[in-house]
Amino acid sequence: MPPESDNGPSAPALPPLREVIAAHGLTATKALGQNFLLDLNLTAKIARAAAPLTGFTVYEVGPGPGGLTRALLAQGADRVVAVERDRRFIAALDHLQAAYPDRLTLVEADALQADEEALLAGAPAKLVANLPYNIATPLLLRWFAKCELFDSLTVMVQREVADRMTAAPGTRAFGRLGVATQWRMQARRLFDLPASAFVPPPKVTSTVVQLIPRPAPLAPARPDLLERVTQAAFGQRRKMLRSALRSLGTDPVPLLAAAGIAPECRAEELSIEAFCALAEALRRQGA
Ligand code: SAM
To answer: How many Cα atoms are found within 13 Å in the side-chain-facing hemisphere of 70?
Structure first.
């Protein structure tokens, strides 16, 4: 059986990923979070986790040598828009571009500054990516703010980031990222991958998380104020909120009273709705 058989029966013949890497002399750059998945069974598993892909444009950040990209195409994505910052990989993906001339759009850009709206051009879209771990959190926060663009987001992140995204109130991992994630998204852990699945192996275990945008946020709040209150509250998470919230520059006691929260509570005890109530109380104070 040829090594690329995971691409599916109708997929075009493609060179093995290790050949692509060797032919282009692609060494991994740590500063760009380059840890590649070369096992096509695993890239196919991630693509399947985001299924169905037919009828969708898939937005991928960091195609690298293209293992996940080819899986997304083989799984039937109408089109893949892949944004890669490292131009060496844009050149190395010419074989994939040639195999899928109408379905693959390679964009050389920094995903933190990409214009997703323009790139997706109103098409129904899913985001699927093995994220560069050094910028995973800013990328996710950026996409939460424009989550209406995506039907779902299926992302590989460090397990510790997955823990924080999916943490429930009252647990140690619950914090700013958990509030920011779950306020707008339903988050579900799908599976872990050991460091040994990547080339080169990262220092940590990885987890695939699936995020489905909620039809509306869990409770009303202005995003900037929700971020301000969670930053203040979790900045001093061991303290009671009547102390921790002093950094907001307003008296925390009436603010907490207006939000219906006991001043002795600590940040990790609050529900996401309670943080929204705090943000709303701050807004009513004219913040
Ligand atoms: N998708 C490939 C795979 O699974 O083997 C590579 C994943 S690797 C973890 C992360 C990829 O993101 C690398 O190809 C890296 O060059 C790219 N990358 C890093 N920073 C980026 C940025 N700011 N914008 C776009 N791509 C970036």
So the answer is: 31
